[in-house]
Amino acid sequence: MFSLRLFPDPILRDKAYSVKDFQTDGLNSIVRNMKKIMQENGGMGLAANQIGILKRILILTIEDNIIALINPEIVERKKDKEVMNEGCLSIPELRVDIERHKKIVVRGFDIEGKVKEVSCEDLSARAVQHEIDHLNGVLILDKMERDEKIKFLLSQKREYCKL
Ligand SMILES: [Zn+2]
Questions:
Q1: How far does the centroid of ligand 1 lie from the alpha carbon of residue 46, in Å?
Q2: What integer is the mean pLDDT of 6-18?
Q3: Tens of pLDDT along 124-147?
Q4: What's the chain's Rg over C-alpha atoms?
Q5: Which domains does the chain have, with CATH numbers?
Q6: 43-61 core/surface letters (b: 16 or more CB in 10 A; e: else)
Q7: How far does residue 52's CA lie from ligand 1's centre (Å)?
Q8: Which residues are catalytic?
């Protein structure tokens, strides 16, 4: 019943809501489906919007484990930044050079509602920043130069142009 949502699906532009009730929000099943869809599509992280659920949930691969973070927030950003070419499962045809923090600390909850804090660096730090962008309705195309973005949107030949 869940599937990977692709640009320009409008749900990718919506801001996800905080999870309030860890008992009844069906988190287990959502996270299970997110993992399945991420693995089927060869990603290293995924935000719930990408399977059509507007809740603040992300999953992330760290050293062969997949962890879930509910209501994630970056609580620390180290100064160092790095530009890397980045893709997104929801916009498979696009790659963008994006500058992001190399090391961050992210705090959220696990699916039982226990506080969880994770230090991330390099690819996993990048993935967390990417997925939190998703939870805020922000996509990698928003990081492009305006001209490049317009070119991309025109190449889509779709009636979608939030600039
Ligand atoms: Zn993405």
A1: 7
A2: 96
A3: 999 999 999 999 999 999 999 999
A4: 15
A5: 10-155 (3.90.45.10)
A6: bbbbbbbbbebebbbbbbb
A7: 13
A8: 131
